[in-house]
Amino acid sequence: MLIVDQEATALLAATIEADPEANIRALWTAQGVPEEMQNSLVAGIAAKAQPGAQVGPFTIPVNKPAPLMFVL
Fold it and tell me: Which of the four, 17, 26, 45, 67, has the lowest number of CB atoms within 10 Å?
């Protein structure tokens, strides 16, 4: 049986969302990934996240899509 502390889970989620790059770098550092490799990986992710970037068969939208609205 898994017991989950909801308050701790919420705090962890907020921390991860606050600075996701710092969190992934901390994980990579703990796993022994060299800083040069981390920099390369982050640069690649940043390049692919730019509007208009081609990622495989997909193109990152230039304009932010309108939010979906549901009418009940």
Answer: 67
With pLDDT > 70 as the criterion, what percentage of the chain qualifies?
A: 83
Quote the Cα angle for 64-16-40, to 5°: 75
User: What CA–CA distance (Å, rounded) separates 11 from 53?
Assistant: 33
For residue 47, pLDDT beyond 80:
yes
- Three-state DSSP at 12 gives helix
Residues forming beta bridges with residue 59, ordered by sequence position = 54
Residue 25 contacts residue 34 (beta carbons within 8 Å): no
Q: Under a CB-based contact definition with an 8 Å cutoff, are residues 54 and 48 in contact? A: no
Cα angle 20-23-24, degrees, rounded to a multiple of 5: 90
